[in-house]
What does this fold into?
Amino acid sequence: MIPFRLLNKAIRAQVIAEHLRLLGATRCVVYTCGNAARALREEGLDVVEVGPRGALQPSRELTYEEILQAHPGLFNATSGHLPPPLMYRLAERIFEHLPVEIFQNHKTIYCPCGSGETLVAMAHLVPFSRLVAVVSDQIAALRFDFSPLKHL
It folds into this structure.
């Protein structure tokens, strides 16, 4: 089993940046270990980063609603919190970057998974494939003690 390697944080940041620019906005908030915030900044967004590398440090994991209440008027770019239309757009972009070999393993796709967002996004475009989450305690982006999408 070899999971695909993909710069999904960069792809995700592009999708979010395009969405915000369509709305005439550039500010967002992200609860992150740091990778998502860096990718969003590289897209030219004004990012409020909450996490170990950010100016703000959470005392606990917050729900989607709590993040919106704590940061009114800011787009919530936290992994696992994208609205379904953006998740679908994310899946389309991911598929543009996947090698065809991924789909030649009896329709089983091994997907690096932190919040579960990439896995759920991909399920939109490959509903008849078997998606297997790959997690790691050694890689911060693949370790998610509180996964907003873990029950899906």
Remarks:
- The helical segments are 8-22, 35-42, 64-70, 84-97, 117-125.
- The longest helix spans residues 8-22.
- The first strand starts at residue 27 and ends at 31.
